[in-house]
Known about the structure:
Layout: H1 3-17, H2 29-35, E1 50-56, E2 84-88, E3 91-100, E4 103-110, E5 118-123, E6 131-134, H3 135-140, E7 142-143, E8 146-147, E9 151-154, E10 157-160, E11 164-166, E12 169-174, E13 181-188, H4 199-204, H5 206-217, H6 219-222, E14 231-239, E15 244-250, E16 253-263, H7 267-273, E17 274-280, E18 287-290, H8 291-294, E19 304-305, E20 309-311, E21 317-319, E22 323-325, E23 328-335, E24 341-350
Antiparallel strand pairs: 1-13, 2-3, 3-12, 4-10, 4-11, 4-13, 5-6, 5-12, 7-8, 9-10, 14-24, 15-23, 16-21, 16-22, 16-24, 17-18, 17-23, 19-20, 20-21
Amino acid sequence: MSYLNRTACLVLILSLLGITAASAEKVTFESLLKELTDLERIAKVSQPAYITKQASSYDRRSTDSSVLTEENWFANGDRNQVLRVEDTPLGREHVLLDVEGPGALVRIWSANPNDGGIVRIYLDQQPEPLFEMPLQVMLGGGTKPFLEPIAHMRASGWNSYLPIPYAKHCKVTVSSPDIYYHINYRVYAPGTEVKTLTPEILEAGMPVVRETAKTLAEPWDRALPNRDGLEKTPYEVTLAPGAGETLELTGPAAIREITCLAETMEPEKALRGILLEIAFDGQAPSVVAPLGDFFATAPGPNPYRSLSSGVMDDHTLYSRWVMPFRNQAVLRVTNHTDSEVTLRGSVGTGAWSWDD
């Protein structure tokens, strides 16, 4: 497909997904920051609509899926790959991203940012970069406004999720190209109102940055300010090998929290061998997953805490994915192991405002 055809398809998809740009909400630094901790938005169609795209250091030799060689489709030199090199008054700059707006940077990742030197982010064709600092400092979570854990290093990957909106244009460069990198960015429909990030907007938004960082750092205590208002349906079931149990909930409502503790001598086997299914409003199940996989822990219960799910120190599993339903939700667990397992916990539901 040609570039022009791809562009036409992109505009059409954006038009079909969202409402008109004139009536859509404005995209700002603070609105994007709030998305980082808003689990409800995942259950809604985004307004204004956008498509997320990625620029990366993938091996540019990988171009033809019919040429299955290491020199073409299976080429794996996924570092030191850039769009172009520019000689500027600041020195030689290696361009990683150069895109038109309206849009927003939403994630930057590198496995070896120390090899990238200085990163510069230019918005709306301004001659001076909005950000200019060592890439490792930006992604390490140790400097304003890239606060931990909005920016952080985990499992040898360095990340920043600080949103950077722009109305017209964005360019990202590094002074040294020998890095692995991803840059994820949103493309909004032409005419969408996006407020370009400036030093003044950044400074005014720092209270929201700090609050967002606290919420992400303390997800169990801060992620659900209305947790006490949930209607909780407790359960306790003992499943023999091959047995199943069902829990039915009446709507309209939204599942906002599920907790589960598996009592068994073989927790790894139980969390892999018990199947969880969740269906809504008479439809086929939207969730079909091993119990541990649904709570993002495998093999067995591994304590961790995140915004959407986690495992407490006593191995209680929790999920906070928001799942609305109009009439009925049906949760079913089936024991596919050869041992008896007891499950106990609760399902928390709350009100949901339908807007369609």
